[in-house]
Amino acid sequence: MRQLLSTRLARLAAAFLLAACAGIAHADYPDRPIQYISPYAAGGANDFLTRLMAQQMAGVMKANIVVENKAGANGIVGAGFVSKAAPDGYTLLMGNSATHGTNPTLYKALPYDPNGDFAPVGMVASVPIVLAVNAKLGVNSIAELIAYGKSHPGKLAFGSSGVGGTGHLCGEAFKAATGLDMVHVPYKGDAPAVADAMGGQVPMAFVGVASAAPLLASGKIKILAVASTHRSGSLPNVPTMGEAGYKDLQFAQWYALFTRAGTPAPVIDKLNQATRAVLAKGDVKKSLATQGADPEYMTPDQLRAFYQSEITRFADIINRLGIKTE
What we know:
Elements: H1 2-28, E1 34-38, H2 45-61, E2 65-69, H3 76-83, E3 91-96, H4 98-106, E4 118-134, H5 142-151, E5 156-160, H6 166-178, E6 182-186, H7 190-199, E7 204-208, H8 209-212, E8 221-226, E9 252-260, H9 265-279, H10 282-289, E10 294-295, H11 300-321
Parallel strand pairs: 1-2, 1-3, 5-6, 5-7
Antiparallel strand pairs: 3-9, 4-7, 4-8, 4-9, 4-10
Helix pairs in contact: 2-9, 4-11, 6-11
């Protein structure tokens, strides 16, 4: 009996020691460089937000945060890399509406599980999709565009950042809601899509507000609507799709911070609090505004509920409209 009691006490002491050591380790986090992965090439919105957050979080956390681009396959390469990282909070992912929204439905052999492989940290920002049209089309509102499309069957095409992107889905949903005869023209990003809309190669494009708003001054494009619940701060005079009569057309390119599943809760909490502190800074809000992005803080639980609902919503749209990857 005495030996059994001694064994149990020894086990309890060992467990207490391990917990104490873990607590000390969490208290010291981060004590080495953090790798922050952008799953897209340099120069785009995802890369911009990754670098902005990495720089600002490094200051808040007094840490060394290194950004690395691992681009390819609509964010799959970078997300797959983080999904296999150690669960210690030293590898972060700037995920988005593709990696944790559309990809789970579009790609049947996805090399990562958006739920099982990741721990959500917090939302960062959202960039609403806008409908930009060539100025020479001669339309000034959604109603006028629909009237034009009905009287010119087969004449409308829309560009987007690519098959399965948020802009593509928004365009297909708009097509279904209005009954317009429109052809999708995929591009390798928002910038070339809206550039061709401005040049007249396609009459319109569904792209992120950051790609379209700066081109308004040229007078070669018009932005007819924003696909969000509220007007964009970058385009206060442009109505929402809801105001135009299509309240269900809500599409945004959103960006959120993830790390590896199994990362200790105290580490995730530190990362979340750093994210919250960064998003509250005035200079960060100004930097986001230059990209047409709205800061969107969420707790880890709120982010999990949000992206899971987005996966379900996008799956319904993708399956209902028969959207497939090329």
